[in-house]
Amino acid sequence: MATTTEATQPAGGEATATTEVAHGEGHGAFPPFDSSTFPSQILWLAIAFGLLYLLMSRIALPRMASVLDARSDRLTSDIDAANRLKGESDAVAAAYEQALAEARNNASGIAQKARDAAKAEADAKRAEAEASGAAKLADAEAAIVAAKAKAMSGVGAIAADTADAIVKSFAVATATKSEIEQAVKAALAK
Amino acid sequence: MAGTADRVDPIHQFHIVDLFQIGQIGGMKFAFTNSALFMLIAVALSFLLLYAGSAPRALVPGRFQSVAEEFYSFVHNLVRQVLGEEGKAFFPFIFCLFAFVLFTNFLGLIPYFFTVTSQLVITGTLALFIILMVLVVGLAKHGLKFFGLFVPHGVPIFLLPFISLIEIISFLARPVSLSLRLFGNMLAGHIVLKVFAGFIVSLAGLGFGGWIGAIGPLFMTVAITALEFLVAALQAFVFAVLACVYLKDALHPHH
């Protein structure tokens, strides 16, 4: 390795000056295994990584965490607010539904009551009318019966009188009034 | 070495270059290297993404903010699913792990950029750190009961020594597999990419016939680049998930 790098160096010219130093110090070893560079690399790794850790853990990561936390807080509070508003609107909707159902119940109750009242009134009027009709009917029937009875009793007397008169006018036979009445009664009974 | 002037060296991209020297302690040389530069770039970019992404604070996020939020939520959900509520304390660590690996992987896909995660020492250090963290957290939370992790329930007593041995070996293998998986994926992917891209350059140098012949490797390079984007994201995810799973053992040693 050392011989090949030396062989190529003249062609490289000025540009090889720095690498020549590095090659020479590495004694031509495979660079990652060149232990002469280890102290510098470990030193700078410690410095770089320590610096990175300090910068990240003290400044960058808390900053980023606060940004993300602020967002998640904002989101959860927004979601909470949305849920609360949704609950409120649900409650309002439920109240409206309830009021509507109540109104519907009330309305049907009122209608039913009105219907019942009208029906009762009509029933009462009909009963009254029926009662008065029946009474008039009964009166009329009674009057008819009385008139009939009167007429019937009158018929007997008239018939008797008539018969008596006929008999008297004929004067063929005499009949006592009682006989005639008996005969009329018998005739009427037939 | 531009690579186009002569034969393409697929290993060249993994060379650590010292941008400037810092000093030397007991034979150990410390320098600001190209890997250090890209580590810092990854740190800056990942921090900026989250910082700028959380700046608008919009209730309905824009595109940029969405990306940053998605990035955050993704790791957050991962940690919560695997570790539960008590894993909250580890969220920043897992997030940094994911962000660091993801950004270094993606940066490495940009031409001429250095791939930090193709260095075994980087992935190995991260993996060792994770395992040490698992040990420390487990021992601090559960004391010696933490080692109940190696004694599964419902195993016949005569099998227990073998099972425990296997459990211990698998535990010790974790940092190895964790580091090698990421390192191997990034290293191999970049080498393959470089080799195929090198074919294009080499074939195109041969004249008209070479131009025709270069179409195949060109398609391969495009396809492998797409694949490497998938691998870069996937390996970062795997690294973070496994770190979570290992940490879960520290929180709940009894499955």
Number of strands of chain A: 0
Overall shape of chain B: it is: globular
* Radius of gyration of chain A from CA coordinates: 69 Å
Oligomer: heterodimer
Rounded to the nearest angstrom, the distance between the terminal CA atoms of chain A is 172 Å
In round numbers, the mean pLDDT of chain A is 82
Write up what this structure looks like.
Chain B: InterPro entries: ATP_synth_F0_asu, ATP_synth_F0_asu_AS, ATP_synth_F0_asu_bact/mt, F0_ATP_A_sf. Chain B: Keywords: ATP synthesis, Cell membrane, CF(0), Hydrogen ion transport, Ion transport, Membrane, Transmembrane, Transmembrane helix, Transport. Chain B: This is ATP synthase subunit a. The complex is a heterodimer of chains A (190) and B (255). Chain A has 190 residues and is mainly α. Chain A is built from 4 helices and no strands. Mean pLDDT of chain A is 82; it is low at 1-27. Chain B is mainly alpha-helical and 255 residues long. Chain B has one domain (13-251). Chain B contains 7 helices and 2 strands, in the order ββααααααα. Chain B has helices at residues 34-53, 63-83, 91-108, 120-142, 160-204, 208-213, 215-251; strands at 18-25, 28-33. Chain B has a two-stranded antiparallel ribbon with strand order 1-2. In chain B, a hairpin with a 2-residue loop joins β1 (18-25) and β2 (28-33). In chain B, α1 (34-53) crosses α2 (63-83), α2 crosses α3 and α4 (120-142) packs parallel to α7 (215-251). The longest helix of chain B has 45 residues, at 160-204. Chain B is globular. Mean pLDDT of chain B is 90; it is low at 1-6. The chains are: A mainly alpha (190), B mainly alpha (255). At the A-B interface, α1, α2 and α3 of A face β1, β2, α1, α2 and α3 of B.
